[in-house]
Amino acid sequence: MSAAARVTEPVITAAASPRSRSRVLAFGVTLMFVAVAGQLINLALRHEGASTIRVSMMSTPSGTLARPDIVDRNGRLLATDVQMPSLYADPLMIQDADEAAEQLATLFPGLNVRELRRNLADRTRRFVWVRRGLSPGMAQRVHNLGIPGLLFVDEIRRTYPAGRLGGHILGRVDIDNRGVAGVERYIDEIGASEAAFGARLSARAPVRLSLDVAVMHALDEELAGAMTRYEAAGAAGLVLDVRTGEVVASVSRPGVDPAIAEEALDPARIDKVVAGTYELGSIVKLVTVALALEGGKSLESMVDTTQPLKAGRFTIEDLHPLGRPMTVGEVFVHSSNVGAGQLALSAGLEAQKAFFQKLGLWGPMRTEVSPGTEPQKPAQIGRIEQITLAFGHGMAVTPIQFAAAAAALVNGGTAVAPTFLARDAAVPPAKGRRLVSPRTSALLRDIMRRNVTDPVGTGRRADVAGFEVGGKTGTAEMAVSGGYRKKAVLASFLATFPASNPSFLTLVMLFEPKGQDVTAGEITAGRNAAPTTARLIERVAPLLGVPAKLL
Amino acid sequence: MSFSREDRSRLAAWWFTVDHVLLGAILVLIGAGLVFSLAASPAVALKKGLPAYYFVERHLAFSALGALLLVALSFLSPRETRRFALTLLVVAFAGLIVVAWHGNEINGARRWLSIAGHSLQPSEFLKPAFVVISAWLLAEARIRPEMPGLWAAVALYAFVAAFLVVQPDVGQTLLLSLVWGALFFVSGQPLVYAAAIVVFGIAALTGAYVMFPHVEARIDRFLDPAPGDHSQVDRALQSFTQGGFLGRGPGEGTIKTSLPDAHTDFIFAVIAEEYGAVACLAIVLVFAFIVLRALYRAGREPDLSVRLAIIGLALVFGLQALINMGVNVGLLPAKGITLPYLSAGGSSTLAISITLGMLLALTRRRVS
Questions:
Q1: Is A349:A390 a contact under the CB 8 Å cutoff?
Q2: Mutation for testing the B interface, residue in A20, A27, A32, A41 having most B CBs under 10 Å
Q3: What are the Cα distances from residue A434, in Å, to A226, A528, B5?
Q4: What is the pLDDT along chain A (551 residues), one digit of tens a residue?
Q5: Beta carbons of B295 and A12 less than 8 Å apart
Q6: The domain boundary residue, chosen from A175, A191, A209
Q7: How many structural domains is chain A composed of?
Q8: Within this chain, do residues A301 and A409 fall inside the same structural domain, yes or no?
Q9: N or C terminus of chain B with fewer C-beta within 10 Å?
Q10: B165 touches chain A (CB under 8 A)
């Protein structure tokens, strides 16, 4: 049939319209449907990919760290990571930056609304943190605002279930969960933390500290009680294992909560055990007596204490002079400044300085939680400095540093390196470098014990039946720039128990205690720090596994 | 339903001649629309301060009305269908003129007419009527070349397109142009003419790009997705990837709370997020089935005018679905075109019912 013939028919047949053209049309339409279906499958396949995109977003250099748990020596939790939603915004998806910022401000009163509004309105950005580490309830409230462009991502945040207990030692982490202080910083330094992919928690074994939460708590309570009882401005304490150097407890009040950054930065909340340096006063006489004993003297050697010591324009005299020569032992028990000065002078300047250096009191002492604070030493040492150093003035060291030296003096004479990490109990403790002879150490333990048992000993109020407490008091006038404050003292008590074969050493320090009825109006360490130590040892000795020897 | 073959009533005649498979597929689509409207629209309604089931109830009402309209129109004979289309064309065109002078402006375009508290979009109703009449004119142009059928078809197209462009409704103009061009091509006009129309179409598109800032912006944004505000399409794409194949589960979607047009233009994305790509593929399959089934029936239709009308109606319906889904999955630039029966919207549902009602009427088997 010709085309002309076809068009003349009254009802044109299907053949008039070329069948091939209909097929082309149907084929085209089919292609379009296939394209949509293909794109659907393509997008759905990206489903798994979507989560990897998220992961890579969080593993960028600014991403957070996954940290191992921190536990005490008995495995009790001190710090752990938890997953929490963090809120961010995609400014490109925010429709009304002003309203979004305003609504968020109602939920987060602390938010900087002006900055947030500017960030949300910045359409060149696709990622702006709003608030990190939200509680699930808070996240739901944000979600309920129904503002497009506000999105959540799970992040890991550090939490400290023990609150302020151990806060100084644990240190803290920054917003990206990186350790910036204390044990947290140490964990990063030894590489125990890892980049947190997709808010996955660390699978590494917990870091076990030498601290014992129970002993920490007892020490914290006793210090708090003493602060109230003696109206002290601050207090600090330490329990040290003299055999291994493990710090079983270390408390400084007022404490810090690792979760509150402001507290860690508050100078009033400095760690008085590890970071602060203080003139410790008469407890340093332990070092001076050790120096004399190492120099060949015995506890019965006589010291001339009849006259006050003169050095230039200074005159050193005792509070209650006996008016007669004393033995070395009596210098210790009566805490004679003149006697200690005489012992230092007779040992000689070089020997005295070398002994301080040997005991590690001349430079900073490094621990896991701190690089150590440089001691404040006299610019040059003359006769007067020799005398004051002998009774603990004119030089400031960290208390933990002094405790380490004292531990070496009483443990038989070998060096002790304080540590905040638990030691592997299966490995016998390595013997430290010998610092003093076993004889000197034994004599020092003996005299410390005598200082507590002697009815006139300054440490008599520290005695605890059955635990053989030995110790030394120290009441140091607190230094202010250019001089000393009268009536403002640092009252300390250094103790070890059991004195015949010491396991532990305690140091209790009370800052600016006031005279009370119970102290007969006095502010000396024997009246406040010593009885506080007694209460402490009575309470923690059973926790520490020290058997009581009751007759 | 069962009827005796002896039954000569109009109902029985309809039942024996209507394309059951096509009718079934359309009813499946209407049912799916009701189910999915429960997914998206309560969230949008609450956000707008309306009762939760405001849009669901409206959807139900319009779906029921649409289904009635669909079945009623499918009773028409081809001749009645053409008359109905002509009447509708005149009425819709009148509506278009009224809208041009005092219509309600929504989203920067005058497309809506308020009738008794309901807003209607005359251009929606214009589409099926225009297609049927164009098909008739193009067929006439082939059957009776001595009559000016071709010129009438071109004139009708130019007139309608001009009015839509003025609105301005570039999307609908594009849709109608595509359908009209396809009909022209299939009607058997020389390929040279068809080629000329393609050239004209490209020129017109370029013109729209230059003349309408919002068209330019949308196309630019589509071609260069980096900067600027394309959050709606972005968010829609996210929901496809987040849904995966099986979806996050009914009610678990999040896009519906963040997209203002979740219940209309972006219902496909909502379905993807909650029910997954499998559900979306099923929907694509139903649309494709309806279109291809209609094209198949058209191929067996002896009357050119009826045949072209079937093709045109199927294309109007199918292209509308394709454009909407294409925008949702990011294949096409953003365009405010609804997904037949699935998107909420009275005008759209009724207009689609008219389209498919006429399609069913024309695909009924006849003795010729």
A1: no
A2: A32
A3: 36, 34, 118
A4: 344 444 444 444 444 456 788 888 999 999 999 999 999 998 888 875 444 333 333 333 346 788 999 999 999 999 999 888 889 998 878 888 899 999 999 999 888 888 999 988 887 777 888 988 888 899 999 988 888 888 888 888 899 999 999 999 999 998 888 899 999 999 998 888 877 666 677 878 899 999 999 999 999 999 999 999 999 999 999 999 999 999 999 999 999 999 888 888 888 899 999 999 999 999 999 999 999 999 989 999 999 888 888 888 888 888 778 888 999 999 999 889 999 999 999 999 999 999 999 999 999 999 999 888 899 988 888 889 999 999 999 899 999 999 999 999 999 999 999 999 998 888 877 778 999 999 999 999 999 999 999 988 889 999 998 899 999 999 998 877 667 766 789 999 999 999 999 999 999 999 999 888 888 888 889 999 999 999 999 999 999 999 888 76
A5: no
A6: A209
A7: 2
A8: yes
A9: N
A10: no
Given B142, B315, B325, which is nearest A16 (Cβ)? B142
Distances (CA, A) of A462 to A235, A248, A294: 17, 20, 27
Burial category of A312 from C-beta neighbours within 10 Å (exposed 0-12, middle 13-18, buried 19 and up)? exposed
- Work out the widest C-alpha separation in chain B, in whole angstroms: 69
What end-to-end distance do the CA atoms of chain B give, in Å? 26
Q: Considering just the CA atoms, what is the radius of gyration of chain B in Å?
A: 21
Task: Provide the domain limits for residue A421.
Answer: 213-543
Burial of B186 (0-12, 13-18, 19+ CB in 10 A): buried
- Other Cβ atoms less than 10 A from the Cβ of A45: the count is 13
Helix (H) / strand (E) element for B332: namely: none
> Best mutation site among B47, B79, B240 for testing chain A: the one with the most A CBs within 10 Å?
B240
CA A246 to chain B, closest CA, distance in angstroms equals: 53
Query: Looking at CA atoms only, how far is residue A272 from chain B in angstroms?
Result: 53
CB neighbour list of residue A200: distance below 8 Å, 6 or more residues apart? A66, A156
Place of tokens 């304490």: A237
User: Hunting for tokens 């603990």 — which residue is that?
Assistant: A392
A500 is catalytic: no
Six-digit token string for B223: 């071609």
Q: How far apart are CA A150 and CA A143, in angstroms?
A: 8
Tokens of A484: 């000393």
**Closest B-chain CA to A18:** B188
A342 and A444 co-located in one domain: yes
Structural tokens at position A367: 């621990």
Tell me whether residue A123 is exposed, middle or buried, using C-beta atoms within 10 angstroms of its C-beta: 0 to 12, 13 to 18, 19 or more.
middle
Same domain, yes or no, for A385 and A430?
Answer: yes
Residue A426 identity (one-letter amino acid): A
Q: Are strands A207-208 and A70-71 parallel, antiparallel or unpaired?
A: parallel
The last residue of one of the domains, among A144, A179, A209, is A209
User: Which 3 state secondary structure label does DSSP give A414?
Assistant: strand
Q: Is the same domain home to A433 and A303?
A: yes
Residue pair A492/A461 in contact (Cβ under 8 Å)? The answer is no
d(CA A383, CA B347) in angstroms, rounded, equals 106
CA distance A145 to A130: 14
A479 within some domain: yes
Cα atoms found within 13 Å of the Cα of residue B86, Cβ hemisphere only: 8
Specify whether A168 is located in the same domain as A270.
no
Q: Is residue A36 part of a domain?
A: no
**Cis peptide leading into residue A254 (ω within 30°):** yes
Residue A345 corresponds to which tokens in the numbers above? 């002078």
- CATH number of residue A383's parent domain: 3.40.710.10
A471 located within any domain = yes
A289 and A400 housed in the same domain: yes
